[in-house]
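EI: anyone free to look at a 290-residue chain?
SC: sure, send it
EI:
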Amino acid sequence: MKYSSLNTFLDQGKSALKKGPIAVICVEDLQEVATTIRHHRMAGFHEIVLLAPDALDLPEALESQVHRVRYDMHADFALVDAINPIIAATAPGQWLYYCYNAEYLFFPFCENRTVGEMLAFHVEERRDAMLTYVVDLYADDLERFPDAVSIENAHLDKSGYYALARPDPANHNYPKERQLDFFGGLRWRFEEHVDKDRRRIDRISLFRAKPGLKLLPTHRFSDEEYNTYACPWHHNLTATVCSFRTAKALKRNPGSRYDIDTFKWHNSTKFEWHSQQLLDLGLMEPGQWF
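SC: here you go
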């Protein structure tokens, strides 16, 4: 189903927001949109909302699997201006997920369990949001793949990730409880080309809709509990969004394009497109889910 605008979708197609989990895919360019849709359909999302430009040409079989909404992801505050009305229109308690094209959600045991099964367990632990780490993917050979995107030759950093306490300006900058800022990947290695406020790799990609909830431009939420990585009594599940987005940006932007000949270094490893690799590298946490 196609919609001419977000307002049209929220008026005529909001029945798609009654039952989750619901994936919202934000299309910034035309790269790997089809693989992004297929990946999240296979993950078990009940509905997929695709925010995309008219220039995107999808196979008919994929068009029939998404709610396609005409949207410009390059406008100022495009993400929050899309996600917040969707949150408001979604049935309270339903799970939402958002990502960009050429990003792929992985969670523990996702090869034989659905995202719905994982979120059902997460709800049993009285959690309404899930921390995800955005792990950078990049092609191994930038001469062959000048846009840094290759599904078959994707690599990632196997180390170099770290966390810092998140200061609370409202409380003399003391650390916030159960909140951390996470760093690593290409945003860390090439930080001179990345604005300071864009270097974090933590994102609350999975969350339950509720009245009054707002996504902030920082990829955090207006409800501070949504921004926590775990409940007070034990570690919870976390997931990973494997993303070509930073690699694409670094090769697209004039300020960094000619300074980077390769993204590979001694801690690069080939991405196996399997959750076990991410678990072994400590890039997501199974918590009490076995």
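EI: The chain has two domains: 1-101, 103-290.
SC: 👍
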